Amino acid sequence: MKNRFITAYLIAAFLIPLVPVNCQTSTGNRDKYTLLTTPYNKRPLTLYKGQFQADAGYKFSLRSRSFDNNGDVIDLKTNGNASVMHNYFLELRYGVLNFVELGIESSYSKRGIRTESTTYGSAFSEVIVNELSEYKGLGDLYIYTSIRLPVQYTWFDFRVSGGFFLPTAKYKPDQPSNSISVDNTTSTFTIDYKYNNKNGYRVPVYQISAAAKVTFSKFAAYADFVFKDPLKEGTNIRWDETLSNYVFYYTSHEYDYLLDREMTTTASVHYQPVGWFDIHLKGSLLLSSKGWTEYWDNVRYKNPEIQLLTLEPGYEIQISPSLRLSQFAGFSLSGKSTDAPFYMITTLSYSIFPFLK
Amino acid sequence: MKKFILICLNLLIGSIATGQSEKMVLPSDLKQQTVVTEPITLRKGYFRAGTRFTYIAQDKHFKESGGREYWPYSSWSTSYGLTFSLSYGITDRIQISLFVPLDYYHLESYYLIETPLLGMDYSLSINAKGRGLGDCNFMIWYQVIPEKEKKISLTVGNHIITPTGQKNFTDNISTTNKYGLPIGNSYNIPTGEGCVQVAAMLLAKKIHYPYSYSAFAKYTYSFWGSKLMRPDYTSENRFKKGNNIFISCSFDLLLNDWIAFENQLNYSHTEMGKIEYEETVTTDPTWDICYSPSLIFQIRRFRISEIVLVPLLGKNTNSDPAYSLSVGYIF
Hints:
The structure holds two protein chains of two kinds. By secondary structure, chain A is mainly β. Chain A is built from two helices and 22 strands. A twelve-stranded antiparallel beta barrel of chain A has the order 1-4-5-7-8-11-12-15-16-19-20-22. In chain A, a hairpin with a 5-residue loop joins strand 17 (about 290-295) and strand 18 (about 300). Chain B is built from two helices and 21 strands. Chain B is mainly beta. In chain B, strand 7 and strand 8 (about 155-160) form a beta hairpin. The interface between A and B is large, with 40 and 35 residues. Strand 5 of chain A pairs parallel with strand 5 of chain B, so a sheet runs across the interface.
C-alpha cells in the first residue's frame, strides 16, 4: 500500500507541472491588434469605428529647378535663387463609424527665396543689393469628413471626402526687416531687403475628393481626384519701402486676389510582400488655374496656369501595432509655370482604439 | 495529515521549480544585435563594413550675435559625402576602425553687375567644385568597464585624422569680358583640412532593455598645418584650426525587435584658430547645439540608418540640417 502510494505520488509529482492549465481568455484585444496591423492591401479607405490616428511628418524640399510657361526647365542654381523648404505637418483622424471618418490637419512651413544679387558700380563706390523673401508660419486648419462604402473591405473600396480650409493662420506679411551696412574702407554699401510673408490663405477654401482602391492578392491600386477652390476673393497687404539717410520707412497698401482653383489626380500601385511592409509607386498630376492678383493701379493680372506631374516611390513599415512609418521621395517630371522640387516626406503614424478595452 | 501536507508541499515545489538552463547564444545572433543592445565594441574576430552618405544644402547660418539667418547672397552650395568604414574587434574589448571619405562640394554664385557710368550690365559667376579623397581617419576603442547586467559600461578611444585629402585650392581660372572686367571665376575646393588632428574620446553606456542611454565626450586637438587660404593666393600660410570639444547625450529605444529610434543631443564648441599672414590673425570661435534623431533598421546582419542632424542654437556656424543614410554589414 505504501509503495503504491509512493509510486502514485511520484507519478503525480512529475506529471502535474506538465499539465497545461488554460483559463478562459478574451479575444477582444487580439481583434483590436488585428485591426491596427491590417496591411495596406487589406485596409479600407477610412479608419475603423473607434480608431484614432495621429500622423506627424516632415517634408524636406529642395527647390533647385522650375518649369517656365512653355514647360522648359530653368536651373534656379544658375540664377542664384535655389532654396530649401521645411514643412512639418500633423493630421488627426477618428473613425466615427466603420465607414465615416473625421479629420483635422495643419502644417508649419518655412523657406527663403533669394533673387540674384546686384552690384551697382560707380567710380568711387559700389552698392550691393540682396533680396530675400521668406515664407514662414502655420498653414490654415483643414477639417474634413470622409465616407466610404458601408461594406466590409475585401477587394474594392470607394470613398468621398469633403472639407474646408478655415482661415485660421496669419496671412498678412509682417513689416519687412530691410537693413543697410556701410564699409567705409571700400566705400561699399550693402542693402539687404528681407520680406516676411506668411502662409495663410485669408479666405475659406473648400476641398472635395473621391478615391477608389482595388486589391489583387498582394497588389493594390489606388486612385483619387481632389478639387480645391476658394469660396471668395481675398484682400491682403503689400509693403513698400523708402530709404532715406540710411533708414527705411515702410508703408502698406491693400490688394485683392483670388486663389487658384486646383485639381489633383493621383494614381498609385502598391505591393505588399509581407504583412508589415508595403512598397508603392505613385504618380500625380496637379492643375491650377482661374486665380488672379491685383498689382499696380488695382489692375487684375491672371495667375499663370500651373501644371505639375510628379512621381513618388515610397514604402510603409508597420513598426508595432500602434506605430507605422512611411517614407517617400518626390520627383518633378514635367510641368508649366511652377517650381520643380525634389522632396522627401517622412511620416510617423500613431494609431489606437482609445475607447476599446 | 503530516504525510498529506508533505505530499502537497512536494507537489507544489515540483510545479514551480525550474531547473538550471543554458542560455543558447549563437555567434549569428550576436551579429544581429541592435544599436540598443549591442556592446560598444565589436566582439573578437568580427568585422563591420559600412558606407555612409551625407547631404547638406547650405541655406542658413548662425550669426555672430546668435540667431539664425539666410545667406543673403545669391549663391547655392551643396555638399555630398560618401564615407567607407571598416571596423574590427581585436578582442571582445578592443575595436579598431578605419574611415575613408570621398567628398563632393559644389558652390555656385551668380551676381548681376550694373555700371551706369559705363552704360553696361553683365553677370559674374563663381563656380567652385571639390571632389576626391577626404581626410582618412582611424579610431581605436577600448572597453575599460565592459557591458554587464545593471552596470554602466565605460569605453575610451582615440581618433586620428590624417591630411590625406587635397588641402589647397587648385585650377583657379578667371575669365574677363572684352573690356577686361571679370565675369567668371572657377576653382577646385579642397577636400582636406591640411592638418593632423588627434582626439581623445570617452563613452559611457547603460542598457535598460528596451532602452539604452549613453553619454559621449570628445576633445580634438589640431596641429599646425599650411595651405592656400584663398583660391587666388599663390603661397601657403601656416594655420592652426581651433581645438574642438564635443559632448553628446543619447537616448535610444527599440520600437520593435529590429527597429531602434535614437535621439541625440550634441554640443560642439570650436576654439579660436590662428592664421599666419604678415601678422597672425585669429578666427572666430564657434559653437552649436544640435538634435539628431535617427531610425536604425537591423535586418539580420545588415544595419541601415537614417539620420537627420538639426542645428538648434549656435554662433558663427552653418545652421542647415544634414541628412545621412548609412548601410553596414557585420561578418
